[in-house]
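User: Batch of two.

Assistant: Item 1 of 2:
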Amino acid sequence: MAIIYEDNKIRFEKRVYENELEDLKKHLDGLKKAITVDLTACDDLHGSVVQLLLAYKTLYSCQFEFSEQPSTYKMALEGFRSVENDCNQ
């Protein structure tokens, strides 16, 4: 199992696949309060898990802890930069 559930903290380790989604959703449904999400030891996160965390983040406060490694899930959870692209050039 790549997700470790603690009181108000959830730790993700190595690769987290979509088969972990149902247990994560059940855990979050039981909490319904601010959490800390530790992703410092996470190598990869399935898109459905990212979506669930983003949905939870809209309702409750979430603090994310990331490693220094760049990743697409980190960009999604932190929010993308707003960059104006001029496509007419």
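Item 2 of 2:
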Amino acid sequence: MDIKEIIIWCLNEHREQEYLDFPDKMFDELDNESAKKIVAELKHRALFKLPKYEIAFQEWLKENDRHIWDDLWSCELHEPYIVSIIFLPNLVERDGRGFPICDLERNDNYFFNEKHMTDEESKVYIETSRVRFKDHKELTVAQLLALEISVGPIDIWHFAYKYKISIAAAKQAVEDLKDDFALVHLTDAEHLAKFMEE
């Protein structure tokens, strides 16, 4: 299917269904550009069901950090895993970042982007990590997290899932980066949102 056909399908589904549930084959055909066209066409009003790979992550989260899963999904008006269409571009990337966990209300947030990396200290930290990576040397969890943040926004739960490490190890990496003055950690959703808008 080309993007025009997919958009027509989306518009029809949006009129008839509570949320879009992309068939696997159709979802696999989407890229970032086509996802943005869908979002623009639907004008941020539609909802869609997370793809299977992200649902697998959410089920892992439910088993491994139930407080976070409850914070995300227990008070939702819809069934779990139904989100705004504005997140579609994030989900088609398939880069391990998935649906961003960045607005927790009852738990500390652990979501980071480049703005959370302090200027000089983080540049040195990231450059050292890149050199070690290129030289095929083992990286610490903190070095790996710094590299991931330098590539794009990520939360520690997706980070832990992607690299098959414990959530405790991911949180310790945050502490290590803070101790090295390479990372700012904003735990409150309101403060985090303002920081991300700057």
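The mean pLDDT is 90.
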